[in-house]
Amino acid sequence: MGYCKPGPSIYNIVQAKINKGPTIYVDDQEKNFIPARELGWTTEIADVEGKWTEKITKLLQNKL
């Protein structure tokens, strides 16, 4: 697409494509959350232990 995180352009493109409700964004770098949070996305840091997967599973179960 020609855009890189954390530049807001890539997040805006994604938002336009998936504009169907809540968005959960997982990344391993906190700096990449700023534009996502500005769009109202839920964010979760991808820790090396993989604990984030349990958190995302719970979030998805609550949103479905």
Explained architecture:
With 64 residues, the chain is an alpha+beta fold. It is built from three helices and two strands; from the N terminus they run H-E-H-E-H. The protein has a two-stranded parallel ribbon with strand order 1-2. The longest helix has 12 residues, at 52-63.
Sum this structure up briefly:
This protein is α+β, with helices and mostly antiparallel strands and 64 residues long. The protein has helices spanning 8-17, 33-38, 52-63; strands at 24-27, 42-45.
Global morphology: globular
Counted by DSSP, the helix tally is 3
Strand residues, percent: 5-15%
CA gyration radius, whole angstroms = 12 Å
User: Which parts are unreliable, with pLDDT below 50 for 5 consecutive residues or more?
Assistant: none
Overall pLDDT score? 90
